DNA sequence: CAAATAAACGCAACTAAGTTGCACTTACAA
DNA sequence: TTGTAAGTGCAACTTAGTTGCGTTTATTTG
């Protein structure tokens, strides 16, 4: 059984993501931590936190991966079907925690994951 | 007024996209055309076709851009709010032309574009 | 507390997608 | 037919993400 260890870098990065209202990219985390650890280490920490179910990935509209903290309600059962919003002005990517999309697609499709992202102007930039 | 010219490469690539049931990436188009033109040229052709409103972009779940033909109904007014399906087995990305998602998000958000992609198993792979 | 060990890390090298600059070629309008 | 701006090829570059490997360190166990 491969155990997962706690390290300073991991805790710091988890705290940053959990305390952020917007999803963060590896580059943003690296800038925010300024030499705390190597960039490769950040990628590996993000993988671990994702595996542990503490954060979830969101692909931004520019193709760059961002990471957001899992909500409290997520602890019971992970479900990340909420819509995300990508602001074209401030470039922020936000989890719209409560907002889910409904759709009806032809059967024969088996859905395993949903990736819904709207882009436009966020409230802060209006 | 900058005009847009027709070239062999452009026509060939447009035909490939228009005749495909799935969205295609630059790499896939390059493989399908085998030395028709440089890879940079493919990127530039894709940009032009997009600008002309003949194709539209779809970001795949792996962060790679794919391109799909615009539907006939699209000629009246472009609107690409339909859902896309990304198959985890055959890696295909399909426009679900008729299928749109409905959602209700907090006002104060101004939506300009929608990017809805479901992933799972497509009918061909079931 | 000390030693063992597997997880975590740093660094260098690599891949893959996409972009840019510039000289050369070609579609097409005049 | 010819001038010219649009299109192309090639080399170089950027940025995100991955991999291999030798070294460090958190945690377990005696
Ligand atoms: Mn979660
Ligand atoms: Mn269209
Ligand atoms: Zn989210
Ligand atoms: Zn589409």
From TrEMBL, chains A, B:
It comes from the Bacteria. Signal peptide: none annotated. Pfam families: FUR. SUPFAM superfamilies: Winged helix' DNA-binding domain. InterPro entries: FUR, WH-like_DNA-bd_sf, WH_DNA-bd_sf. This is Fur family transcriptional regulator. The lineage of its organism: Bacteria, Pseudomonadati, Bacteroidota, Sphingobacteriia, Sphingobacteriales.
